[in-house]
Every structure is written in C-alpha cells, then in structure tokens.
Amino acid sequence: MANETVLIVGEFVRTIVDRFRLTLPPELAEPIAAKQEAACVLAKERFGALSLWSRESWLARVEPGIAVVRQKIQSRWLPTQVAEVQQFARLLSTRSRDVTLAARGRLVIPEEFRDFLRVKAGGNCVVVGAGICVEIWHPETWQEYLKQEIGSF
Question: How far is CA 69 from the centre of its chain?
Fold first, then answer.
C-alpha cells in the first residue's frame, strides 16, 4: 500500500523511451508504490498532463461521487438528468486506467493516453510531485501552467 502520510514533492525532467516507458525517480515512485510492482491508476488531468495515483488513493477520491450517482439512479431520482449521468459516466470511464508501476519506478504510458499527453517516444516530459499524486506533464504545458499560477502562489 502506498504511504499516505508522505507529501510527494519534486520536479524532474525525464525522457519517455521507446515503447513509451517512463522511469519515475525514487522520490516520487516510492510514496505511490511501496512494493516492487504496484497497482496504480493513471488519469487524464488537463490536456498535456496526466496524474498517477496509488489505486487506494484514487478509489478514495472517486468512490464517493460514484456512490452518490449510483444511489440516485437506483432511487430513480435522475430521470430528467440522463444526459448528465451519461456525460459523468463517459468522462469517468475514459479519464482513468489501471496501470502497473513496475520495479524501479517504470511505467508504460497506455496508447490512449499518449496523444493526450502530447509527448512522443524519445521526448522529454516533466514529472512533478503534486502532494498526493505524481503528475506527468508535457514540458510546454508545464511552463504555461507555471506562468499562470506561480505569481499567485
């Protein structure tokens, strides 16, 4: 299980090698995956950025919302909100995917996430500790984000 008490921080430039493999630095991999191979969740955050979560942390984040929608569907409370339920389910089902963080922090970025991240094999990405998860950014998207946000930090 991931160590929930550790604040995940740091910024590292990494190369996505052939077959879209990425090696996370130990400072970022260890808080998410305490064992050699760990079940994780990779999620689309914003165009050009992905986030990597321990499976337990991801489920704790999304399960309450899913439970509310499930309860409303079962009680037939949402008959006029079918389009909203479909949109929620559509985005939820395409937003994340189970992945394995292998030994030494190695991760394969799934095909359907590659275009979203906009990084080619052999290209660089920026890996950032975001406190409770690890984020993987396209370098230009990361710089744009910093320009917008750092002044108000």
Answer: 22
**Predicted confidence (pLDDT) per residue in 61-72, tens digit:** 888 777 777 776
In the block, tokens 């292998």 appear at 102
3-state secondary structure the chain: CCCCCCCEEEEEEEECEHHHEEECCHHHHHHHCCCCCEEEEEEEEECCEEEEEEHHHHHHHHHHHHHHHHHHHHCCCCHHHHHHHHHHHHHHHHHEEEEEEEHHHEEECCHHHHHHHCCCCCCEEEEEEEECCEEEECHHHHHHHHHHHHHHC
Dump pLDDT digits (tens) for 70-95: 776 777 665 566 677 777 777 676 78
Closest CA to 96 of 138, 131, 53, 135: 53
pTM of the model: 0.83
Amino acid at 80: T
